[in-house]
Amino acid sequence: MTNPSILRDTKVRTSEFLLSEANGERSRDIGVLAPHVAAIQAGTVLGKVTATSKLVPYSNAAADGSQTAVAILHAYQPISTIDTKVTIFARDCEVDALFLTGADAPALVELAAAGIIVRS
Fold first, then answer.
1. What is the rounded distance in angstroms from the CA atom of residue 34 to the CA atom of residue 47?
2. Contact of 88 with 110, CB cutoff 8 Å
3. Domain 4-17+27-113 classified CATH 1.10.3470?
4. Gyration radius of the chain's alpha carbons
5. How far is it, in rounded angstroms, from Cα 116 to Cα 91?
6. Using CA atoms, how far apart are residues 20 and 17, in angstroms rounded to an integer?
7. Mean of the per-residue pLDDT values for the chain?
8. 18, 100 in Cβ contact below 8 A?
9. Which residues contact 48 (CB under 8 A, 6 or more apart)?
10. Nearest Cα residue to 58 out of 112, 113, 4, 110
11. What is the DSSP string of the chain?
12. CA neighbours closer than 13 Å in the CB half-sphere of residue 95
């Protein structure tokens, strides 16, 4: 069995968290990631800011819409001062909980409502 603490200290590779997805890449979508001051790794749970419809890392403590988990980031994104188009997993897929960043209990429920099943 893999040691979860090792995984937390290692950069997650593109789609490493993905266990299965719908045919024809139906699970994937394109979203706009808001500018961010820190790099965001693959497997980060994302929320959507209501006022702008831009994606940001999910935060259960937020009050701008990003407190609702809506997707998972496909690939690592370096620091950016501009909006960035990114591939996300938004529906009909299974992911490994050990490789997700920012997934708490409410996020798991919200992802499940979107058809994203988190396996532990």
1. 11
2. no
3. no
4. 13
5. 5
6. 9
7. 93
8. no
9. 31, 54, 55, 56, 65, 66, 68, 70, 71
10. 110
11. ---HHHHHTSPPPTTTTEEEE-GGGTTEEEEEEPPBSS-B-TTBEEEE-TTT--EEE--TT-SSSTTSEEEEE-S-B--BSS-EEEEEE-SSEEEEGGG-BS--HHHHHHHHHTTEEEE-
12. 35
CA–CA dist 72, 103 (Å, integer) = 10
For the segment 61-117, what is each residue's pLDDT rounded down to a tens digit? Answer: 999 999 999 999 999 999 999 999 999 999 999 999 999 999 999 999 999 999 999
Both structure tokens of 99? 């490789």
**What are the extents of the domains in the chain?**
4-17+27-113
19 HSE (CA, 13 A, CB side) = 14
Calpha distance 116→27 (Å, rounded):
9
The first and second tokens of residue 57, run together, are 């890392």
